C-alpha cells in the first residue's frame, strides 16, 4: 500500500477525533463558556450541519481543482476550524467554529476515497478506501479517549489544539506522499451534479441514511443502556466505547477485501448481520459478558457497511464520483441525527432503554430492502462494481497526459 494511504488515514484519524471528542467534553465546555450541558450539545449538531452542507458545496466548488491541491486546501480549512474552536471566547463563536470545522469533513473523505482508489490496482480499490476509513475507526479507540482525557486534565481547549496539530501533520504528509492526479476537461460542477441524478446514486445514499441510522439509533444511547441495564459504572463506559471502536476496526479491515471480491453481497450481509446483532443486543444487554461481545459485533457490522456503500456510489456516479463519494458522509451524518431521534422517541414513549435496539434493527432491515432494490435495478454487468470505480473515474483524466496509479 502506498504511503499516500497512510497520509489519508491520518486525515481520517483527525476527523474522527474532533467529531466525537466533543461529546465526551460537553460538561467541561459548558462550564468553560457558561452554558448548560444541553445547550453545549448543540455544538455536536453544529459540526454535523457543517458536514451535511460542506460535502456537496465544497466538492462542487473544487470540481475543477486537482485532487491533491483540493486535499491540501480542505485540510487547511480543517486546521483553521479547530484552531478557531480552541480560542473561541463565547458560545456563538464556538458554534460557528464547530460548523467551520465540519465543512471539509465530507469533502475530505470523498476526495480522499477517489484518490485512494486510484493509487492501487483496480482489484484492490476497496481495500485502499477501507485503509483510509481505518483512521476513523482507530480514532474511536485511541484519539477520542486520549482527546477526552487531555481535555479533562488540561482544559477542553487543549483537545482542539491537539486535533489542529494532527491536522498539520496530515497536511504535511499529504503534501509529501500524495501524487498529482489531474482533473480532465470534463471535470466541473455540472458534470458532478449530473452524475448525482443517477437513480442508483440516490438509492445508495438512501441506503446509507436508513441502514446506518440503525447503527446510530443504538450508539447514541449506548452509555445510558450500559449504566441502567448492564450495570457498568460511568468510569468504565469509556473502555466499552473503545471496545466498540475495536469492533469497527475489525469490520473495516475485512470490508476492503470482501468488497473487492463481491460488493453487493458484502453490503447485504453487513446490513442483515447488523440487524441480527441489534436484536441480539436487546436480549444480551442485561448480561455484562454477552453485552460486550454483542457490542463489538455491532461495531464490526456497522463498519462493514461503510466501504461497500462508498464504492457503490463511486461506481454508479460513473466518471464524476467525487461529489457522490463526499455526499455519502452527509448521508452518514443524517443517519446519525435520524437514528438518534428515532431511538429517543422509543425511549420517551416508555418502551425502555433497550428499545433503540429494535428501532435500529428495523432501520437496518429497511436499509437492506433499499440495497436489494438497487441490486434489482442493475442489469447484470459482468465486471465488479469496485473495478468500475477505477474504469469510470479514469475518464476524468483522459484528456490529460498523465494519470498516477502507482501501487508502490
Automatic annotation (TrEMBL):
Q: According to the UniProt entry, which residue ranges have a biased composition of type Polar residues? A: 384-395
Where does the record say this protein resides? Cell membrane
Q: Which InterPro entries match?
A: MFS (IPR011701), MFS_dom (IPR020846), MFS_Efflux_Transporters (IPR050189), MFS_trans_sf (IPR036259)
Q: Which domain of life is it from?
A: Bacteria
- Annotated region (Disordered), positions in chain: 383-408
List where the protein spans the membrane: 42-63, 70-89, 95-116, 128-147, 159-180, 201-223, 235-255, 267-285, 291-313, 334-353, 359-377
Keyword annotations for this protein, in alphabetical order, are: Cell membrane, Membrane, Transmembrane, Transmembrane helix
The molecule here is called: MFS transporter
